[in-house]
Every structure is written in structure tokens, then in C-alpha cells.
Amino acid sequence: xxxxxxxxxxxxxxxxxxxxxxxxxxxxxxxxxxxxxxxxxxxxxxxxxxxxxxxxxxxxxxxxxxxxxxxxxxxxxxxxxxxxxxxxxxxxxxxxxxxxxxxxxxxxxxxxxxxxxxxxxxxxxxxxxxxxxxxxxxxxxxxxxxxxxxxxxxxxxxxxxxxxxxxxxxxxxxxxxxxxxxxxxxxxxxxxxxxxxxxxxxxxxxxxxxxxxxxxxxxxxxxxxxxxxxxxxxxxxx
Length: 238
Known about the structure:
By secondary structure, the chain is α+β, with helices and mostly antiparallel strands. It contains 4 helices and 13 strands. The strands form 3 sheets. It has a 7-stranded mixed beta sheet with strand order 7-4-9-2-1-12-13. The termini are far apart. The model is unreliable at 7-12 and 144-157 (pLDDT under 50).
């Protein structure tokens, strides 16, 4: 990890700016840290996240550790899991004092997202129930020379169509991570008989993102909540 590349000599730094800079270097842990704290419940996770975000210099690696360390317990998250017959739902668990959003997403049989970005934020996605499948794409018209992840010999991403660069299954208690420097993604529940539930952390929070079609047409989508803290939101409060 190359977070040390971020200017650490500045005594006071805007947390949001710091987090967005960190997306240039962070790529994710594969397993929890040996020295990290234990997380024994969803409430432990929320409390630990609040502690991490008290500092302007948020330790993204520790945030990753916390998400990996929590083990799914349906008795703890069931009250937030609200399903819709026609589409997947985004249910706010904790607003993180405006510094992060922790959400539970509920996926009915065959439900999936559009191809989208994350507004230069970090996205951690942990499976709580069932399975999801992530398809990842190059970010169109975005130079890849600086991050060394280009799949094209000239270092530039093909701007004519979405370029798929990988497909990954996500099983219970796995954690996937993405930011805009790693690409776009689409997430779907591949099952036509079982539902899925996932826990997502976004930092900094965002209220709009970009959605992409196969022909690269890009639109701005408003991010809404189907419920907040276990209570269905009204249309004008989403």
C-alpha cells in the first residue's frame, strides 16, 4: 500500500480530500489484519467505524479490516433488510456523522444494479446472506498510465464500448472493494430462487453517481435510501 505517498506533512487535512486521494493508491486487504481489533457484533462494527473516522487521517486499511472481521449474524441485521418486489433496495444503517454511510442492500431473485462508478469514494461490500456476482469494467475515457492497470497497449482505455475486465463471485462474509481508479462495476444476484443481502460502506458519502450503458452513454443518477434505520422512507425523504 502506498498511502505514504499522500502528503503527510500537512498537520491539518480535510478528511474528505484525504479519502479521495487515498483511492489513488488503495487496493484492498485479502484477510483481516493480525493486530486489528476484534469485531463481535454489528454494533461493535458501527462503534469501531465511528472511532476510525474521528481522525482526519482515516486508516482505510483498518476500515477494511473491520469489514472483514465482522461475521454475518441475521439476528443483528434483519431489521434493516427491506426488500422490494421489483428492484434491489438500499437501506441506511448508520450515517457515520456525515463521514461515511453504512448500508444494507437487499437483492431479490435475479436483481442487479446498472454499471456505475462511486463518485471518487471508497466502496466496501460484504456479503451477509446468499451470493452476489460482480462484473468489473474499465472506466471509459480515463487514462490508466498512472495507476499501471491498463489493459490496452497504448495505456489508454478504449472509449468506444465498455470493456469488461473481470467477474467475481462474492460469498457470505467475503468483502469486495472498488474505487473509480480500479474501474466501474455491476453487481447482481445470480440466483432465481434465493435472495441476497450485502453490507456496504461508502466513504466519503455521496448522493449522486454516474451510470453507464454499453454504448458508453453516461447519466447522473441520484442515490436514494429505501429505508433509514429500519423504517421505510417517504418518497420525498429518500
